[in-house]
Automatic annotation (TrEMBL):
Record's keyword annotation contains Kinase: no
Coiled coil keyword on record: no
Protein name: Fe2OG dioxygenase domain-containing protein
Domain Fe2OG dioxygenase stretches: 205-307
PROSITE patterns given in the database record: FE2OG_OXY
Entry's family note: Belongs to the iron/ascorbate-dependent oxidoreductase family.
Gene Ontology biological-process entries: coumarin biosynthetic process
InterPro entries, per the entry: DIOX_N (IPR026992), IPNS-like_FE2OG_OXY (IPR044861), IPNS-like_sf (IPR027443), Oxoglu/Fe-dep_dioxygenase_dom (IPR005123), Plant_2OG-oxidoreductases (IPR050295)
Pfam families given in the database record: 2OG-FeII_Oxy (PF03171), DIOX_N (PF14226)
Organism placement in taxonomy: Eukaryota, Viridiplantae, Streptophyta, Embryophyta, Tracheophyta
Needed co-factor(s): L-ascorbate
UniProt keyword annotations, A-Z: Dioxygenase, Iron, Metal-binding, Oxidoreductase
């Protein structure tokens, strides 16, 4: 990465080193987008790249055992890698409460928020961050996030989590866990896995992470990116959107994008790299990106169902039993995780780490 200009270094110091985040920069009253946040022209999401003729499926899962529901989920995972679910059983008031909690946390004075900055937090299980890897990125993302590690052992740190949002985070996590379990049961059944035993569960969901993502309003969102194009490294991701919108998914046409419109009460589900690898490409982890809003502060709440740190994953034996050749080698999740977060987001390039 080339050296930054002095003004960009000042912004890095304010946003990262002084723990203000992009929220602090917006609160300071900036009226133009700093150069550090301006995407090269070829990387911007231009209107002519947005497809209006395709859409991501919305699936009613009120009856998980309905063969049509199972077929719809597996088909969506193979074709799109993304779908929305409704009638999933998580109460609307729980969804609304965790979104409100995100706004409450990011509405705190900076001196209160910064107590939880990564490396400064009272516990490693909660960390406030900005962008992805700001020290390694030539262009920063217009996003801060408060990240919670949520394994049973991590939850013992609950008393050290921010009081303005911890109850809502735990309640949402508890309500979403059965949905995550049902989704994985359906998706693995589509791969001829009849039962998720303890070892499989560890390789899928042992280390969940929940983020409160915050995208403050932006003076010129067309120049920036809320989150750059990437696929998730999870097994699956369960995303709660607010009503503002801004999530786009790469279409089957490589240079086009599809908006994922907010649906009240819905959860957005996407396949992560882990499940694409385990399925030997039957399911697809698809690139997605987020655009900030010019007038409103946007929040979203993803839960990443991640393997245990020392879990080893690769194509499932059930997938390969007919003689199909594996496309990926076996990988330790902590190695994949470190590789992914060692550099800026680059689409799906992280998967080359596991590819044979």
């Amino acid at each position: 990465m080339p050296p930054r200009d002095p003004n960009s270094e000042k912004i890095i110091d304010f946003v990262v080193n002084k723990r203000n985040g992009i929220k602090g920069l917006v609160d300071a009253g900036i009226e133009t987008v700093p150069e550090l946040y301006i995407l090269p022209v070829q990387e911007r999401l231009e209107p002519n790249k947005i497809l209006t003729t395709d859409y991501i499926p919305v699936i009613d899962v009120s009856n998980w055992d309905d063969p049509k529901v199972i077929e719809s989920i597996c088909q969506a995972a193979g074709k799109w890698g993304f779908f929305q679910i409704i009638n999933h059983g998580v109460p609307l008031e729980v969804l609304d409460a965790v979104k409100e909690a995100a706004h409450r946390f990011f509405g705190l004075p900076n001196e209160e928020r910064s107590k939880y900055w990564a490396g400064n937090s009272p516990t490693e299980t909660v960390a406030l961050k900005t962008s992805v890897v700001p020290q390694a990125e030539s262009v920063l993302e217009w996003k801060d996030n408060l990240s919670f590690r949520c394994s049973p052992r991590d939850l013992e740190s609950y008393p050290l989590w921010p009081p303005v949002c911890r109850d809502e985070v735990v309640k949402y996590l508890q309500s979403a866990n059965p949905v995550i379990r049902k989704l994985l049961e359906v998706l693995l059944k589509g791969l001829k896995v009849e039962e998720i035993n303890e070892a499989r569960e560890y390789a899928l969901t042992a280390s969940p992470i929940l983020n409160l993502n915050y995208y403050p309003h932006c003076p010129n969102p067309d120049l920036t990116v809320g989150v750059g194009p990437h696929s998730d490294i999870s097994a699956i991701t369960i995303l709660l959107q607010d009503d503002i919108g801004g999530l786009y998914v790469r279409a089957t046409d490589d240079d086009s994008w599809i908006h994922v419109p907010p649906v009240n009460g819905a959860l957005v589900i996407n396949i992560g790299d882990i499940l694409q690898i385990m399925s030997n490409d039957r399911y697809r982890s698809i690139e997605h990106r987020v655009v900030a809003n010019g007038s409103k502060d946007r929040v979203s709440v993803p839960i990443f169902a991640n393997p245990g740190a020392d879990a080893i994953f690769g194509p499932l034996p059930e997938v390969l039993e007919s003689g199909e050749q594996p496309l990926y080698k076996e990988v330790v999740f902590s190695d994949y995780f470190k590789y992914f977060f060692s550099k800026r987001l680059e689409g799906k390039k992280a998967m080359e780490f596991a590819r044979i």
